[in-house]
Structure formats: C-alpha cells, structure tokens
Amino acid sequence: MRGVTHARWAAGAVAVALAATGCGGGGSSSGGGNGGAVLSSSWGDPQNPLEPANTNEVQGGKVLDMIFRGLKKYDPKSGKAQNWLARSIDTEDSRTFTIKLKDGWTFSNGEKVTARSFVDAWNYGASLRNNQKNALFFGYIDGYDKVHPADGRQSADTLSGLKVVDDLTFTVRLNQKFSSFPDTLGYAAFAPLPRAFFTDHAAWLKKPVGNGPYTIESYTKGSQMSLRKWDGYPGEDKARNGGVTLKVYTDNNTAYTDLMAGNLDLVDDVPAAQLKNVRNDLGDRYLNTPAGITQTLAFPYYDKAWSKPGAEKVRTGLSMAINRKQITDTLFDKTRTPATDWTSPVLGTAGGFKDGLCGKACDYDPSQAKKLVKEGGGIPGGQVRITYNADTGSHREWVDAVCHSINNALGNGKACVGNPVGTFADFRNQIGQHKMSGPFRAGWQMDYPLIQNFLQPLYYTDASSNDGKWSNKDFDKLVDQANAETDTAKVVSTFQKAEEVVRDNMTAIPLWYQNGSAGYSERLSDVALNPFSVPVYNEIKVS
C-alpha cells in the first residue's frame, strides 16, 4: 500500500524548469473552460504507470485520489470509511458480501460505472500475469490461489469469488472471514476501471481515465502533470477550483523557495531545514496536523546476515542506540513524535494504538545497546549502511542524526553511515529488486485507518509492502485470527498480539510518528490535509 503500500515516501523538492509558467504560483489563471482558477502544487514523479492496483506509493496515490472514486471514501477530517459508489455492502457471515452500487455514476469518457467495472478491475489486479504491486489486496477473495499462485503459472483468469448479479450488484466471497473488509474498499487498488483500460491499454496508460472529480490533461515526466476539473463529475465532492498543476521537484527546499517567491501555490511537505522559519514566513498559512504516517528502518531478510539467529538482538540493540527524542526535538520542531509502537496515534486507543508497546526496546540506552549488538554477533559486515533517497533534504539530515546517535552509543565512529540513492524512483526500484544489504528507510502512510493496515501489508508473508521479505508463522497466524474476528475489540487485541511478535523480533525499528505539514500561498483558501497527510485538493479555493 501506499503508502505504502502507500509508504510515505515524499519525492521532495528542487524545482525542475517547467515548460509552462503563469501567474499566481505558476498555475494558469483560468481553468481552461472548466470554471475556476488552477492551483500549482509540489509533487514527485510516481514510480509506476498509474494503474490503481500497481500504485503503492504516495506520489502516484495523490493522483489516483483525484481521478478515481471507489465503493468507499475516507472522510477528509475523521478518516472514517463512508459509502460512496456503494449504496450498501451487506453480509451475514463476514465472508460473503453483497455490494449494491448507486446509479448515475460514469467515467469521464461517458461510460457508465457498473458492477462489471469493479469485477474486471479486481480480476486484473489479482492476476499474476499482470504483475500488479497491490495484487495481495485481493488475496482474501476466493480463487486468488488460482489466479495468483505462489508457484507456477496461474490456472484461472478470474477470481471465483467475484460474481456479477446485475449492472448495479455484485457479490464477493472471501476464503476466510474478514469483518473489516468493507472498510478497506476506499483504497485505490479497489477502484473501478472503464472498458478503455482493457481495449486500448497503452492509450489508457498515457492518459488515464477515471471517475473522480479531476481528469488528467497532460503529463511530462520530470516536469509536471496537469489535472483539470471534470464538470460532469456526479459526486458530491466536486472540485471547487479549475484544476491542479502538479510540479515535479527533486528537492523540497527549492519547492519552498518557489512558494515564498510566488512561483508555487502549495508545498505539502515542508522541508526540515525550514521548520524553524515557516511559522514566521507563512503564519496561519502553515499547516501542521496529525497524520497516519510512521517512519521506520526496515531490514533485508533475504540477506542471511540479517535473518540468522541472534540478529534480532542486533536490531534491538540498534533501536536502543537511537536517541529519538533528541533527534525529533532538534530536527523536526514539533512535527515528529518518538515512536513507541508500530501503528499511529491517529488510530486512537480503541482503534489499536498502544503507547509504549515497544517497551524498553525503543528507549535510548547506550550500554544495553552495545551489549545486545555484541550478544547478537555484531553488526553484519562491521558497519550499518542506512539506504535512503537523497532527493529530499530532510532524509539526509535525520539519517545522519540517527547514525551519529548509533556511533556515539556504540563507541564506534564508523559503526553507521548513510547510503544515499539519487532519486525516490531509483530507491524504490532497488528495494523492489532486493538489492538492499542493510537497513533502509521505510516510511509508511496508512491506506485506511485500521490497525490491520499498519501491520499486515508490511510484515505478513509475501505482503505487498513487505519489502524486506520477513516471514513469521506466528505473526501470520495471529493476523488471520484477527481478520476473522467480528468483534472490534477482539480484532484490535489480536492484532496487538501480532504486533508484539514484530516487537520481539524487532522486525523493523520504529523511529517516529509524523505529522502532515504544508504551506500555501495567499491565493488559496480552505486548504487542509486529510489524515493521510494529502491535501484535500477538491476543497481548495483559488482567488
């Protein structure tokens, strides 16, 4: 997911020269016939073409959230899942679901959104031959083992658990109980797709067609993407502006400079270097709000040096060598909070956040850190090299600070160094190709506000965002048990037991919880970040 699978990997900030310039922050002054002014916002090129089931990072996710609407939509303030295209989602056993659609929805090309639009999209996303990064999101649907087997070729083209009843009704049969399944259906991987996606796939990839409040007008990689308001959008959340021009930056410090110079309207990731100035620079045009984002250090378990017995002591020792409070206080000026578990405070205690679940393993304790690293056999290769994408200044700063803390705690000035990779896309590609030889940056932005989303996609065997390829039968069993529970309290408590398995193995080192931050120009009003730390673009007004 985005994040992680949508992971919160902001591509960041140095402005790239753009072919088109205009007044008011680099956006055009009119909506090109779409009724309203266009705003400009910082952005980074997505890792992959914008197929909903193949986008599991934030930059691509921002666009999908603008051009698609699904069965559910997450409230921009509370994050609560609301029926959107779904008129109803009913079940009597938490395993078979009947989904009825609202009538009147179309794609921007005029095609009607039907039950088949969802069923075909989900079958495509699940199919092994289509190699979609979010395929495992469909793993609970009956027949997944046939369309996406763990080994060998697929023996079926479609999921047996999906059945079209009529134009506005379809059923979903899962291979086990999953009481929270309806709340996951606002994630972009479950978006509907028009027939054009299948009949002329190459053309669709060049200019994706969706059913959201915006349409894509043009995209030049490394430069910008132009989205415009879709006047025919049938939803209640119509765009209140003429469109959004997403400008590609490879350094968010330059994006901030452009904002201050009047060449950009919105920066949705204020660089760490500007946090001490931003309140004076922008006043109430600076946003700093809680978000479902965590930053961790992940490990490559496909490297035997990190998966051998005793390595968990090394990982725990490294965790205890990191002075989280000092780093967050020094670098992040109230925009980060030291992590004490693997979820997020935005879930609330009822939703699964458990302050202190990490225990002493997340406390700064140099003497215990040194002891555990030694007991675990020492750092593999004698040095920790933390890999990160260097196209945002803030990552370099905190990685250097983490290494400085580890080196001081272990009494070895060369125990830890940063290992920068030039761009976010290259960084993600290296991770996907299993080229990591040590810990690597693994930010996570929730896809939906459930404790399940902070654990299963990241740590379940072969999960979509399990980049380190960790596998633990006890964890998997507890996740399956949690998903089968129908009582919310039992769901949460069972997932917390699974989280304790992550803790005991120090599968990933939790660093801090991250607020969403943004700054905007005087042209804009009604600017807000949702709980996923993404601007609510359709609500923004441009003067």
Count of helical regions: 18
Specify Rg, calculated over alpha carbons: 23 Å
Regarding quaternary structure, how should these chains be classified? single chain
Q: Helicity, in percent?
A: 25-40%
Residue share in β-strands: 15-25%
Shape: globular
Report mean pLDDT, rounded to a whole number: 91
- The number of strands is 19
Low-confidence stretches: 1-35
Distance between the termini: 35 Å
- Largest sheet, strands/sense/barrel: 5 strands, antiparallel
Structural class: alpha+beta
What does this 3D model show about the protein?
By secondary structure, the protein is α+β, with helices and mostly antiparallel strands. 29% of the residues lie in helices and 19% in strands. The chain is built from 18 helices and 19 strands. Strands 11, 12, 13, 16 and 17 form a five-stranded antiparallel β-sheet that branches. The chain has a four-stranded mixed β-sheet with strand order 1-10-9-8, covered by helices on one side. It has a four-stranded antiparallel β-sheet with strand order 4-5-7-6, covered by helices on one side. Helix 14 (393-410) links the parallel strand 14 (384-389) and strand 15. Helix 16 runs antiparallel to helix 17 (473-484) and helix 16 (451-459) crosses helix 18 (488-505). The longest helix is centred in the last third of the chain and has 18 residues, at 393-410. The two termini are 35 Å apart. The model is unreliable at 1-35 (pLDDT under 50).
